[in-house]
Design goal:
single chain, mainly alpha, Rossmann fold, 5-stranded parallel β-sheet
């Protein structure tokens, strides 16, 4: 009879059928043989040869595929047997980027109507919200030929969305050239105040100083630079008469030649475009309300804009855009300007009325009064904004560089 195996501690063996997988537990001695934990890693020479042969066949098949310019016949037959479905057939195309609406915005900013402050805000907001702020290297060409319109529309339309394009340019009809019409926004101001800001900026510049501005405008003669504003108006100098005074309406009328002729046709067409193509046209005298409405209408572009605008650091930058050496013309000269700019004022009051109507819809209070017989003037505060003029070659990026150097 076979004698039962005894373990070192005495008594019967607790594992008569062999040691459990992994060997004996601690304390039972080392006399038991340990079983390997990963026995499946062991393979024979025959298995190794089979794997290498499979790899060789795969490599030769790949080589044959490339040398013959296509897959072997049996693979084509196999695909036909299994069906011609692809990954895209089974799963569909990858999901496209979800764009906000609207994702195409154009700010064809009117000269001397606060756009330098707005552009500065847009640069901050584009980094914060991740939209594509598109600017132009051409700053003072507002009227374009047909080919120039087509080229600019093509460049804007191919920009990565969501984008906001900004430039001094008269209204462009994208649909006329087969493009998707973007949403327009803009800001205007009292026409005479805009004219005065432009008049003195051409001569004396802004915070960079008069001497600096003289260097930047060497072609201006001294008698022109120091021409009295009243003399310019009363003596009917070209700069102070039409068509130079007919300035705001063409930005909304468009590129048609008649848009540059002061009259009812251009005025009515500008009003029509405001109603049909502009999401918002604000007035500079109520800039904070303009920014508030932009934040509500276009939150993916303007969210938080009012808090940035009110920030002391931003206001410090805003102080640097003020035109210097402004003077108010005589009442007689102002009355003449008002008569020469009657179409501009009719458009300004129309836009102002629409803007106040929009504010009331959103619960914003407006102090609406009847239009005066002639415009009321005010001396701009340091926070009022300025921008480059049309007939002066000035780089819009240069003033930003100058600000950040200080």
């Amino acid at each position: 009879m076979k004698k039962k195996q005894q373990h070192p501690g005495g008594g019967a063996d607790p594992w008569p059928h062999g040691t459990p997988l992994g060997g004996a537990p601690p304390g039972l001695g080392s006399w038991k043989r340990r079983v390997p934990l990963l026995p499946f890693l062991r393979f024979s020479l025959r298995d190794y040869g089979f794997c290498m042969a499979t790899l060789l066949v795969f490599c030769l098949g790949s080589l044959f595929y490339q040398l013959s310019g296509g897959p072997p016949r049996f693979l084509l037959d196999l695909r036909q047997y299994l069906g011609n479905s692809t990954y895209l057939d089974d799963h569909g195309p990858p999901p496209s980027k979800v764009l906000p609406f609207p994702s195409q915005v154009v700010y064809n900013r009117v000269g001397k109507c606060g756009s330098r402050t707005v552009v500065l805000l847009l640069r901050i907001l584009s980094e914060k919200h991740g939209f594509n702020l598109v600017t132009s290297d051409i700053h003072n060409k507002t009227r374009l030929t047909k080919n120039e319109q087509m080229e600019l529309i093509k460049n804007i339309s191919t920009a990565e969305q969501p984008y906001l394009f900004t430039r001094h340019v008269h209204f462009l009809n994208f649909s006329r050239f087969g493009g998707d019409q973007p949403v327009y926004i803009n800001i205007i101001r009292d026409p005479v105040n805009r004219f005065l800001s432009n008049y003195f900026f051409r001569r004396f510049g802004d915070w960079r100083g008069e001497q600096n501005h003289m260097i930047r405008t060497p072609s201006m003669r001294q008698e022109e630079r120091y021409l009295d504003i009243n003399e310019c108006i009363l003596e009917n100098y070209p700069e102070c008469s039409n068509p130079r005074l007919f300035y705001i309406i063409p930005y909304f009328c468009g590129q048609h030649p008649r848009c540059r002729e002061p009259g009812e046709w251009a005025l009515e067409r500008a009003k029509l475009n405001v109603n049909e193509n502009f999401l918002l046209v604000g007035i500079l005298e109520e800039l904070e309300d303009v920014l508030l409405l932009l934040e509500r209408f276009l939150p993916h572009y303007f969210k938080g804009v009012l808090s940035i605008y009110k920030d002391p650091e931003h206001r410090k930058l805003g102080n640097m855009t003020v035109t210097v050496k402004k003077t108010v013309p005589s009442p007689e000269a102002v009355q003449i300007l008002y008569q020469r700019m009657r179409y501009e004022y009719e458009f300004y009051h129309y836009v102002k009325e629409q803007f106040h109507l929009l504010k009331r819809k959103f619960g914003l209070k407006s102090h609406v009064s009847r239009p005066p017989l002639r415009p009321q003037f005010f001396i701009p505060t340091p926070l009022e904004t300025e921008e480059p003029i049309d007939d002066e070659e000035q780089d819009d990026e240069k003033w930003l560089e100058d600000i950040y150097k200080r």
